[in-house]
Design a protein that fits this description.
With about 270 residues, the protein is of the alpha/beta class. Helix content is about 45%, strand content about 15%. It has a 7-stranded parallel β-sheet with strand order 3-2-1-4-5-6-7, sandwiched between helices.
């Protein structure tokens, strides 16, 4: 017999970037726990494929192609979610991306010079803004759209997917780390602001994950060796592990937890 506090039957969750990688791991884990899922991501093909897998688990799913950096598309996604399910119990702000690049050319070659196009050119304002939009502003825009519904029902769970880079600087990742540090403070500030409405706001700090986005670190032997050497548990994070932790934060088991950043990164954040 399962633990009833972890049961998500009757709950509706929106997962941004929920069609692949960590987001897909989250979508499937929430569905396994009983939730119905709104999958929001840019690719129509990807969200529909993820929705099919969720249906295969016996849950309802609504695929909504959405660019979460655009408020107009977010409003449409939230409107469709409310029309389909009548409520939004859980929001997972997962959408994001990272691309290693120094602020200015450093005058020497690294392994990234071979693996990342444009790595040895100056970091443009457009590239900086793109990282901030995807990794911080998108969470603000989606939460702003979903928040009034949770406030009205006086209950909700918001889980932001951040990174250990929010508190531990990584070489050549200044925009990403800056955005995720902002997401950490967004999480804590919002937890305080919406506590009176019984809305829990927490974040999961993922380590480098064994996903398509982490492919370069997993498949390049030199990068893989140096990366794993720095992680106390000597392993990459799995998407399902983030999904299982999300289930906890989305469930009644975490009703007394808010404003917390929980790291799942093999211990790298403590080194």
């Amino acid at each position: 017999m399962g633990l009833k506090e972890f049961d998500l039957h009757g709950k509706t969750a929106i997962v941004t970037g929920g069609s692949r990688g960590i987001g897909k791991g989250i979508s499937l884990a929430l569905a396994e726990a009983g939730a119905d899922i709104v999958v929001a991501a840019r690719s129509r093909e990807a969200v529909e494929q993820a929705a099919d897998e969720i249906h295969g688990l016996g849950r309802r799913s609504l695929p909504v192609p959405t660019d979460v950096t655009r408020a107009d598309q977010i409003d449409i996604m939230v409107e469709k979610s409310m029309k389909e399910f009548g409520k939004i119990d859980i929001l997972v702000n997962n959408a994001g991306r990272s691309a290693p690049k120094p602020l200015v050319p450093l005058g020497y070659k690294t392994i990234y010079s071979e693996l990342v196009p444009g790595f040895d050119s100056v970091l443009t304002e457009e590239e900086w803004n793109e990282q901030i939009r995807m990794n911080l502003t998108a969470a603000f825009l989606v939460t702003r759209a979903v928040g009034p519904h949770m406030i009205k029902q006086k209950k909700g769970k918001i889980i932001n997917i951040t990174s250990n880079q929010a508190v531990k600087p990584f070489l050549y990742h200044i925009p990403y780390g800056s955005a995720k540090a902002g997401l950490n403070m967004f999480t804590k500030g919002l937890a305080l602001e919406w506590a009176r409405f019984n809305i829990n706001v927490n974040a999961i700090g993922s380590g480098l994950a064994n996903t398509e986005l982490g492919k370069m670190y997993v498949e390049n032997e030199k990068l893989k060796e140096s990366t794993l050497r720095a992680i106390p548990l000597r392993r990459f994070t799995e998407a399902r592990e983030i999904g299982l932790l999300t289930v906890y934060l989305a469930s009644e088991a975490s009703d007394n937890v808010t404003g917390q950043i929980i790291y799942c990164d093999g211990g790298l954040v403590i080194t």
